[in-house]
Amino acid sequence: MILVGSTNATIGFPAGMEILRSGGSALDAVEATIRPVEDNPDDRTVGFNGYPNILGELELDASIMDGRTLESGAIGALKGVIPAISVARKVMETLPHVLLVGDGADRFAKEMGFESTEELLTPEVKAAREKILRQDMSAAEFASLAESDNLRQWVKLATDPERTYGTVNVIAQDQNGDIACGVSTSGWAWKYPGRLGDSPIIGAGNYADNRYGAAACTGMGEMAIRASTARSIVLYLKMGLSITDACAQAMQDLNELGGKFIGRMNLIALDKDGTPAGYSSMKGKTFVYQTSEMETYVEQERTLVEIEERWG
Ligand code: GLY
After folding, report:
1. pLDDT tens track for 26-78
2. Of 170, 231, 292, 310, which has the maximum CB count within 10 A?
3. 2-124+158-311 domain in CATH 3.10.560.10?
4. What is the C-alpha separation between 210 and 250, in angstroms, rounded?
5. Is the Cβ atom of 12 under 6 angstroms away from ligand 1?
6. Geometric angle at alpha carbon 259, from 189 and 156, rounded to 5°
């Protein structure tokens, strides 16, 4: 059995490993590993206190996939309700749908008892938003953003890849060999309201199939949507590629995307035999994994595959 994650998932590893060690399911382990990350106020890319959209509203994306059946649940642009990963799991378990977004996602979360009355952004995050956006706009422009008829122009400046984005990825394989994969994010900081990244899109940011393996992405979600990155990795495994060749090929697919708005990408993957892998287009990035034999997680550098960045 094994737990694999993006490095920001380590805060949830004890909870996930406890479930795997006590014979629990990969699905439960994935959810339990991600929930502490969503609660972590210091992680500005996931759940509580994540960086908001350009109007200052927190919009959460999350998905979970069961490799036994390929059943999946996802929520997008969920406003102000955590744990988003648990809402996504409820979509999978209680609805004939896979993905709920916006008002419908909020409504469903409340219907399932996830109502949150807490303020989900701290004053520090609100101040960070103002500081970053004010690099490009006057005080008056900042104050009237909600009424702007040119939000798209500000978004193009504010979402420059030099600023920020991130996500949490977790893959688990339990003692039965079953695989599950979960992803959660507050999305790209300062994004256009309603923007969905790859995290809630099954096949883009998340894919799991017991027969071959699983993969998940962090980075510029638009690229993973365009290249169907997580599904591609699992399909490459199905075609007989090794885990390293499958990931390298998926990174190469991203590098070959045409047009503009090409940024950064990180991915983690696991094959059905329990071999983990981590890849990044940035040097020095790491991922983590832990097996039942290991007392604690190992942090390993991701294999670098360069992607030529092109913005605007
Ligand atoms: N990969 C996270 C996002 O693009 O929202």
Report:
1. 999 999 999 999 999 888 889 888 889 999 999 999 999 999 999 999 999 99
2. 170
3. no
4. 19
5. no
6. 30
